[in-house]
Amino acid sequence: MRRIFSCARPGRMLGSRASVPDRVVRRWRQGLPRAERFAIISLLGTKPDGTDEYSFYSFPDAEGFECFLNGQSGSSSSRFEVFSFRTTDYGPVAPEIATAAKVLVQERLARGRTVLIMDSAGIQRSRILCRMLGLTQKAASDQV
Asked: Model pTM?
């Protein structure tokens, strides 16, 4: 079964620029849909003023996010893969970034992964990619 979801980054509900404690990221992880393996497509990059969107966390980047998520799983297997496609919050997604992300999503779905498309609020940049994949907002949050 192929499944795809979109969402906000962990801790976004604390505010667009709030520091996010590790416990909030763990809670976010626990709230994800059940899946054996996840491919997380991160569209996080920078705020319009240049602030790095990973600066709100204890991990520095998408690779650190992946390590954090897998380190919390209690096993040696890597349940989470995080792929970074850096974009700017409130900005357009460059066509080459959107195309590369779309290809990766399709490839991971073909491998049976559950795909999670994530940006800051889970609305603007995620929606662009979901539309490229032919998904409606409802389909992006339901089974496909």
From this structure: 0.89
